[in-house]
């Protein structure tokens, strides 16, 4: 049975969170997920949704997700960021990731964005190979920078 790719609904959020936690375990960060179903509902389906989620469903079970949100590039204009593309471990190798990826690309194209972008871990060779084979360009001369709340506060305390 082929997976159905569709827009996520609020009732999907418990299974979406399950997929997110599975990804965290895969990325060797099992305790890093701080969000809840309530967070997903508020931020994805509230008054001002900040993300869009696609799900892959087989036999009424969500076996994959792709979560995207819009960004703005001062060089390109409106872009779309693919935050996560997740397929549950027992469903990998069945074309589900490719189907989700294709849906995200279709969505980006339909939305008229000037770029679709995402990050991939340098040790995830399977994903790197998949993305390069699809025609994506991997920018190896850029660093991803992040600042967590405690670092923000420390910076502000030192500089204000």
**Count of discrete alpha- or pi-helical segments spanning 4 or more residues:** 5
- What's the β-strand tally? 5
CATH architecture: 3-Layer(aba) Sandwich
Radius of gyration, taken over Cα atoms and rounded to an integer in Å: 17 Å
Instruction: Tell me, rounded to a whole number, the average pLDDT.
Output: 96
Q: Which fold name fills CATH's third level, the topology? A: Aminopeptidase
- Determine the N-to-C terminus distance: 59 Å
Question: Could you state the order of secondary-structure elements as H and E?
Answer: EHHEEEHEHH
Q: Summarize the main sheet.
A: 5 strands, mixed
Return residue spans where pLDDT drops below 50 for at least 5 consecutive residues.
none
In a few lines, what is going on in this structure?
With 160 residues, this protein is α+β, with helices and mostly antiparallel strands.
């Amino acid at each position: 049975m082929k997976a159905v790719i569709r827009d996520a609904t609020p009732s999907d959020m418990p299974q979406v969170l399950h997929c997110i936690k599975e990804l965290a375990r895969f990325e060797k960060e099992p305790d890093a997920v701080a969000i809840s179903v309530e967070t997903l509902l508020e931020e994805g389906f509230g008054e001002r949704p900040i993300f869009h989620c696609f799900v892959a469903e087989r036999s009424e079970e969500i076996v994959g997700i792709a979560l995207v949100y819009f960004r703005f590039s001062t060089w390109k204009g409106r872009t779309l960021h693919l935050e996560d593309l997740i397929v549950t471990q027992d469903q990998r190798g069945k074309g589900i990731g490719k189907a989700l990826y294709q849906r995200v690309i279709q969505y980006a194209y339909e939305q008229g964005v000037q770029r679709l972008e995402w990050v991939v871990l340098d040790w995830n060779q399977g994903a790197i190979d998949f993305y390069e084979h699809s025609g994506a360009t991997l920018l190896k001369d850029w660093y991803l920078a992040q600042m967590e709340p405690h670092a923000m506060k420390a910076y502000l305390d030192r500089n204000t």
